[in-house]
């Protein structure tokens, strides 16, 4: 089928490529003429304006937005007046599901459908396919299934779950209609929240291995430092790249994140190219807020989030306060370095 | 080669089977004659006593212990006098690495070698192979490579890490000599610590999805309960089995643990067969203690461990104290259920 | 001065009493005639309706609301039409500061002033005085200082902070104008967030002491339980009431919460009267959400909040998932009790 | 009575002063002659050697050690041969209770008594008195009560806990015999663990207040930063010194630590004199390890400990790993500063 695509960054352009490989036609638009031109050369139908994009799409139209979350409302505002009742808008970015709920209502008043699609797969999506979590009305979602199916990874990319044979549905084909407006981004939000926890688990564990030679370092002995009681028990020099690699085969903790970790540690065992200031991009925060609203305990996901804040120096004032208190009651002075 | 195996529980007997499939000979012993008999029928060489086991092994002998951690010292004590200098003992169970360090010293005094092997793979090891993390002296470890190779998963079980071609080593063959005595169980310990974190991340995230319909429940409105400000934002009824399934394909959080989770949720969507009293088997505790000794922050792994304690009701006294304090300063009474 | 008070629950009626003790006049209203009558007997001026309350107050009026947070908007809606420009409304309850910001704007459009006052002191406030954190426009706050001063604890209730002599301000008199609309409840919100952390710290520590005899209990020895390595190190039977008491004198952790804890433990050493289902009343949640918005790491306050959720069984589904995963990869069965 | 004191640092010398003020005699020794001389000038009986100290004490002797934890075993080794059966040694420092258990056994073999005393009070102890948690045999503890009573704060330093009248015991006099060998330091260990949690709770909460103006800062808008949804809700400039001060009077979170915090914030509102590298001195670590041994959930105390590690840069490698993973799956580059 023919789909409009707005936003030709890395994600948007790769999706267009994957769709065209599956035989779909894409009418593409981007604020950058160059980006449009590049996709035209790859086989897409270019549009120099939103009007042209609307004109080149058959009704009922389907337009996929792949723009930064902060730009979605503006894009919808520009696009909606150019569409007709029955057309469908798809937000494939990282919107907060709360915005989806609002947008679906606003667009419904114009007779437009709104679908929110959380996608996972990152820079590997073109090759591996995109896992898609979808929210919105059943009719428009159903109509767009060929698009979702083309973007999704092949079913054979993972072995079949035993007992799945009779269940049907699209989950094992890599896309899922999760529920009404916002459901797709809600599930994607939690997906990312889980991602924070998984990443932190690997990072903390590997850090313990990295420092397993703590006993070999001549410890500074002063009143402000706790000496190791049994330094000989911490005299291992582990090869982290090898350890991550061996865990990839047969262990309980094998995963795609571990695959990537093994690759990074192989390339750069001491990770000297990174400063360790870890960004967080919204979903982790929203996940924890949702947990709080629901009264669901999430000590692990929360700890992962707060450690990201700490990594960026955001704990500095609190840490200074601790030093100030220690100074006040015990006369303790901070150790330098 | 010919290997002695002591302990024919699920793990030990499966290992014997996998070794024999690869052409190795196993002399097997267990306190249960039945267990020995079953393996003899499967092709193993039975031993009715430790003396017989020792007699049936060529020197230098190699004996693999697959007994509960609490029984290893006793087994070593029984076995050592029956061995000769140059023989090697392998502990393939879940020993604390601190014990390995001690045992290696004790056995060295008798001229015996001690190898600690942390294995991961669980009940799937027979079929998938066992990931093996190995500690001990280089010589004996080298000599036993055919055994480790036979137990390990095939290299092709995971795609090759880009850039690995030139590096050599055995990591991508599923087993790794990690360092001296205790190194194998140290790495396995941290492996399990990571496992706790990964499991908790999935469990917490899926629990948020499970309770995403919190807004649909008629909330009890009293002074002790915080009402949801926007209940309509929590009106999703998610199918967790489908969501776990869709994440298995193409998403950043795909993993073997997720594969298993998808299977469990398919079989039993509400998990009613479980009480939620989660055991912890030692390695998670030791991991956090090692982190503390090394001053390595592990907020996520720690939170996962403490939540396991909580799941078993161990927080009860602390929780009662909180209620008591709230009663004291605010006159708050606990809500019943 | 003369103040209107709406809401004569425990907090409201005690405040009226404290104000009258200081020589102020209170015009009181409550949905319950009985409650009004009781305060009239204590010396207050009763009002049978909001109209009567408004009529009995001199302009510019000042009316203090001491009603449940969920009822404040309704109360403001009833009251505002009966007031005149220049009058001031005070919300002394536990409102979310976000609501204060909105209300102040709405009331400003009618020429009314809105002051938010977070109060701490609980059931002891009548006797000890109420710590007050105040938000709103400077003029009305200034005008109401005699009220705040009367409700506040005496300056001598705590020894003077060294160096405070020259600083001025009202902080050491027990009330503080913290900033514009919402500032009072923002500070109170964080106050309660801190309270959650403090309470959890005591509760966890005392729980460690409570279980310091773990080594004396005949441990169940099975594969699902980690035995204590050195049980003789955990053979203390501590008297928690005595320990809390001794900490009250001279220790770094003495506090008012500890005073209350010592009292509760004295009355009921095993706390058998409590079930351990700990409520959370909103401020703790809002505190953590504010921290997330600000990117401020709050691992401790978050952990305290999530443990409260856990205490009420909200972790059950996640815990069951952990058991399900353990069953899947390791064949582990849950221990019963 | 007459007591020997070894170790005349700040703690030891202040204790000698407080004891002498109460009429006790102290025979003092320190490796520094100057330190001895200073105490002699203050009224103590100097000893130039351990032999002299032993000679100047009547039997059964009582010698209090106030030396760094790392030096206690050496000091006991030097001292024990100079003592006679029935004499008592007191360790008043911050020993690990595990060492107490061992030492008590070793000294018992020589007929010597060993008492462990955890003391809290810091640099204020001379003036306020020392809270003392005591472990050891009942007889020697009983005999030393006059010493403990002199060091303790006066009973009137805190108001009596209601209902305490009939209970008896010494807890409300500021010292407590908690149990056998190690009990004193066990309770002190947990005391410090609680202290970590309390301190973190205040520090985190005040940090939220400190950053409550986050909405006023021109945010960097890029794909790696989550913008505030409602920046106007974070536009407060709070005076932390005033807020800490107001909380000191009448609030639920008043405490001695808050008193000190108010003082520090008054002197140095931005805490610029501190770097925020927070030491941890052993007890916090041991507390969490004890909790793990006992299976007692301590999410809050653990989070406080791990944040201290983080404050010293110990999370760096884990943080770099997170950045590496994000780079690997999403092509994310770290933001510079």
Automatic annotation (TrEMBL), chains A, B, C, D:
Keywords noted in UniProt: Gluconate utilization, Oxidoreductase
Residue ranges constituting the 6-phosphogluconate dehydrogenase C-terminal domain according to the UniProt record: 184-336
Gene3D superfamilies in alphabetical order: N-(1-d-carboxylethyl)-l-norvaline Dehydrogenase, domain 2, NAD(P)-binding Rossmann-like Domain
PROSITE patterns: 3_HYDROXYISOBUT_DH
Biochemical pathway: Carbohydrate degradation; pentose phosphate pathway
Origin: domain of life: Bacteria
Matches recorded under SUPFAM superfamilies: 6-phosphogluconate dehydrogenase C-terminal domain-like, NAD(P)-binding Rossmann-fold domains
UniProt KW Nucleotide-binding keyword: no
Similarity comment text for this entry: Belongs to the 6-phosphogluconate dehydrogenase family.
Name of the protein in question: 6-phosphogluconate dehydrogenase
The organism of origin for this protein: Geothrix rubra
